[in-house]
């Protein structure tokens, strides 16, 4: 069956079973490999994309549920040269290690920081509990995210 | 020519060049590279822990849609291994663990490959398995390897017998006399830990093709040269016909320090003539994880009231699972972890790798150092309680000093541990206590010490100084996430050549381009590849500087390099750009290239006291002091970490910010091990945890920011005085947490992880202390045989 998707502002189609997890369509059919498929059961957050602006785990979502909605993947949020504030902060604080968790982390935390730019440390930690990272031990990611608000404070 | 660059030129908080792509999802790991037109592979695995294979019938599966090839043990009959060649690629006649590969399928899609793998008919006769080390050591136990005597032994010296795959021993001095002394207190303890699963986000994955008759494997590995050697031997093709390339690796932590699925992908590519991708599913990855091994330990010490350890005996049982693998080598490490830190008047150690019918174990960050340090530090605190001495004071008195000898007689140089303990005391003073945060819970605190090492081993590097003034560094190093290939190495090369690290291009590992390397692990990358890179730079300079001297009409000794220029010392603005000198050199003599290689020269130990050891003495010791405060909830058994502090011996900190990242990440992995990462083996010999849900690794809300200080200046043979910094942060976390929980509860903490039910059990029950009946109280009952000379002595 042909599925029509709006991904990163483009209309794309894929001939797949309607119950195929969205992450597989994104990675294997559309070859957008930035979104990672790590646990495939909604635990790690590495597969997070935005569906109509809402962070969603694409491993749990059948592709048919994304039809007609705007899907944004990590490839759609910015890259070298035009990184968003979250990506910038993470780069500046040198927090990336193996990097496998970061596409999902960026998707989740971009949405969160837009909603709550001045969130305190404890709240950011709580918001990050859906994104697992095996390498970094988290705290320096949180330092980086806190620096976004601090920076806006001083430039405002 | 011996022109030494100022080591300080290499020190900086260089950001990672791979971060922007990793943050934007542009980095392509092996799991991202299959692409259209590639065949997908699936493995058919055993579902019993032990049995005889009667029949494998793949005729029906072969006819299923999309199937291109099926391979079994007949296609790769050989074996491989680290110390003993005991490991076949596929089970042929015997199944030795639940999950062992029996066959593999390549098909057009992954679903087709999986369906066909499931359709292969496997007829087996199940046999009673040996699931625990206690069972394996019982005289009536079946042998996991009936033919153990006939295996090729790749390294001589270890005692072996039946289910004891390998035994390494240390005997120095007369412990019998020490324990018989009238003025000593004898303290004895047993300890036990489970396995730890690495859970790298990228599973083991490989893509194989045959190109111009040669095998090319793209693989997520830490050891490209091991994969090259093992794959060629299992396929029966010359190793020169195998090329390994390694894209960025989505973390390894030691899991990828061995060749595993690569030869399977290679066989299928060979059979089909097509590009074949094989990646473990998360369930397969966990079911066959080469975990940090479960272990059981008994330690006995004779200590004076002054805190002098006059005798120590210990036996360590390490479960290697169904095949020897890394554990054979790791038996060596007890001498350098459990046998380290403290000055011992006499010592006897026996470390035994035990075969069981369980999934094979492997290497994991600081390997058996983590649990040996746990056992040793708990034992040390028990000694302190027995002789009534403050634990920090005891450590001050008993740890290595300049000139102390280790268990194998190696001489340790420099005052390192004592000043590190003082640094920790000052840090504790400065930060104060968090006791108030414990509220109504039980508060505890502990400071522990630990020793690890860098396994140096051979490495090679080539540096091309390009005519534009940039340099290209070619090595077999792999970027596994620690940053070495994007930070430390370009920093070292830039510092040597006087250029910017941004101008050092680092080539990803390719065995067709770079020389041999042991692999990325054990904290050796910065040290060994760094040292080889320094030598390659020296070679470059030996070609560049004569040309510069001639251009500038001065002697080579007057030249200094920096900021992309070669100048005459003391005359700023004199001289020429490195690019222009490189162009001149290229015009005169051809392109400027340098090569360098390095290996540890070996450190002497005392003759005759280490048996079955792969390394008798360690090239670069690394010490760590950790402090932890905990609050234990007496109602739930939940342990909260209130604070965590690290003083780490780093030699020279090349990139302090990157080391901070390694310390925070390594400590948190250790907290998972200490508190809730629990691998168990079920009745069918399977690892019971098969998902992120059932195996709980730390989440953001579980962790605390680690306070740390880097201890610089301890002796190191590493380039610019560096030591590896990424391996060791996990080393004494289990120890520090366990000692703090023991301090909080007043109970003997002898097991990890400290899950809430286990802590609650400690609090409410009056169980007798842990005992391992299968580890004899008499040390000599825990060894296969001692050489005559030792027995007599
Ligand atoms: S892959 Fe979707 S949450 Fe882990
Ligand atoms: S950086 Fe490796 S999983 Fe987060």
From TrEMBL, chain A:
Database matches in PROSITE patterns: 2FE2S_FER_1, 2FE2S_FER_2
InterPro entries referenced in this protein's UniProt entry, alphabetically: 2Fe-2S-bd, 2Fe-2S-bd_dom_sf, 2Fe-2S_ferredoxin-like_sf, 2Fe-2S_ferredoxin-type, 2Fe2S_fd_BS, Beta-grasp_dom_sf, Diverse_Oxidoreductases
Gene3D superfamilies reported for this sequence: 3.10.20.30, [2Fe-2S]-binding domain
Record-linked Pfam families: Fer2 (PF00111), Fer2_2 (PF01799)
Keywords in alphabetical order: 2Fe-2S, Iron, Iron-sulfur, Metal-binding, Oxidoreductase
Domain 2Fe-2S ferredoxin-type: 1-77
Domain of life assignment: Bacteria
Record has Metal-binding as a keyword: yes
Gene Ontology MF, one: oxidoreductase activity
Coiled coil feature spans: none
Metal-binding listed as a keyword: yes
Protein name, entry field: (2Fe-2S)-binding protein
Automatic annotation (TrEMBL), chain B:
Signal sequence region: none
Pfam families membership: Ald_Xan_dh_C (PF01315), MoCoBD_1 (PF02738), MoCoBD_2 (PF20256)
InterPro entries: Ald_Oxase/Xan_DH_a/b (IPR000674), Ald_Oxase/Xan_DH_a/b_sf (IPR036856), Ald_Oxase/xanthine_DH-like (IPR016208), AldOxase/xan_DH_MoCoBD1 (IPR008274), AldOxase/xan_DH_MoCoBD2 (IPR046867), AldOxase/xan_DH_Mopterin-bd_sf (IPR037165)
SMART domains given in the database record: Ald_Xan_dh_C
Example of a GO MF term: oxidoreductase activity
Recorded superkingdom: Bacteria
Domain Aldehyde oxidase/xanthine dehydrogenase a/b hammerhead: 24-128
The protein, known as: Xanthine dehydrogenase family protein molybdopterin-binding subunit
Source organism (scientific name): Mesorhizobium denitrificans
